[in-house]
Amino acid sequence: MSLAHSLDGVRVLDLSRLLPGPFLTMVLADLGADVVKVEEPRVGDYMRDFPPRGAGMSGRYLTVNRNKRSVAMDLKDDLERERFLRMAAQADVVVESFRPGVMERLGVGYEALRERNGGIILCSISGYGQTGPYRDRAGHDINYLALAGVLAMSGATPDGPPGMAGVQIADMAGGAMWGAIGILAALIERDRTGMGTHLDISMTEGALALLASEFGILDAEPEVPTRGTGLLNGGAARYGVYRTSDGKYLSVGALEPQFLARLEEAADLELPAGSADSAAAAAEDDLRRQLARVIASKTRDEWVRVLANRDCCCEPVLELDEVAEHPLHRERGLFFEIGDSASAGALQVRTPLGMPAARRPAPALGEHNDEVFREYGV
After folding, report:
1. In angstroms, how far is CA 209 from the centroid of its own chain?
2. Which of 33, 202, 325, 329 could make an S-S bridge to 334, C-beta 3.0–4.6 Å?
3. Average pLDDT for residues 13-33, to the nearest whole number?
4. Strands (E), the chain
């Protein structure tokens, strides 16, 4: 069953910039919502100018702003503010990612929106939340992960530095995804009650929620869980990343005894008795040394062939330029193109919810002023 048109008829006004809000509204647009980016006239969304650029705009901007329309409006201008409020009176959702208090200072905060439209859903994404001692504090993904405890869980050893996350976890999972879930839940609640709501999405709290299972073991462990010590973050030799002879890497996730036994057979390992279930440091160190030595004896692609039919939870570590050509992703149709295939931002990734409802390129700043204002009657 396709979800591509499940949000047909839902109107979204997107005041957000950069990554969390635009990724959220991309998901809504993929599901059929009519998303209008409301941008400051001179610069618009700052992401437009982030290098590298394609078709005159940032490749990052082009990939997370597909299927949207853009209008340029200066909300500091009284007439433009009134125009926006008249649009909000007809919309279902407003998304914003300003610092807390900015919407109120502009005269378009939740109370002003609710006066025009009792069913409006305002989703506010911020670093630390709309209330509390950090509400006015600046931050970025790395800071949110640090305060959430996520950053401390990544890294090779407890006495070494935390490892940098490879993607913006707080922005995307902590902000955008929780925001999307909240909006969908609010739309269902509005169908029952007729009332809208103000969603306060803290990226720090969203990232912290990803540690739910780790907090579940906090009191059960003799030592505080941290980087390089847990079963799933470096403490277990059978769950890690190993270098191959060609300088590439193989991921090993043979946690369960049956998977480790198959890897042992395929790689000709000599495991200490009971090492599959033992947490003893000596056993883990011995297994780690064996895995490092044996995996370094073949290239990554040789290991792919050797382990192809072993079902032992081992997969190649793909570099970004290899991902789109992998047979799994090709068979499942994970990628598609918009516009010139040679330009940055042309290669697009669908979400797990399926192909988007449309395949329109990201808009130029103010590209749809006349069209959108006419539709909204403003």
Report:
1. 14
2. 329
3. 97
4. 11-14, 34-39, 53-54, 57-58, 68-72, 93-96, 121-126, 197-202, 239-243, 249-253, 314-316, 335-337, 347-349
Contact 188, 174 (CB under 8 A): no
Average pLDDT value over all residues in the chain: 93
Does the pTM of the predicted model rise above 0.90? Answer: yes
State the catalytic residues: 140, 171
**Residues 227 and 153 sit within 8 Å (Cβ to Cβ):** yes
Q: Which two tokens stand for residue 307?
A: 């382990």
338/341 Cα distance (integer angstroms): 7
- Three-state DSSP state, 91: coil
What is the H or E stretch that residue 265 is in? helix 257-267
Tokens at 199, concatenated: 């969603």
Q: Under CATH, which number does the domain 11-210+333-376 receive? A: 3.40.50.10540
**Could you tell me the residue ranges of all domains in the chain?**
11-210+333-376, 249-316
- State yes or no: pLDDT of 342 exceeds 90: no
Instruction: For residue 303, give the DSSP letter.
Output: H
Give buried/exposed letters for 305-317 (b at 16+ CB in 10 A, else e).
eebeeeebbbebe
Is it true that domain 249-316 has CATH number 3.30.1540.10?
A: yes
pLDDT digits (tens, 9 = 90+) for 139-165: 999 999 999 999 999 988 899 999 998
d(CA 376, CA 34): 12
Spatial separation of the C-alpha atoms in residues 201 and 345, rounded to whole Å: 28
Question: Distance from CA of residue 207 to its chain's centroid?
Answer: 11
Cβ pair 189, 197 in contact under 8 A: yes
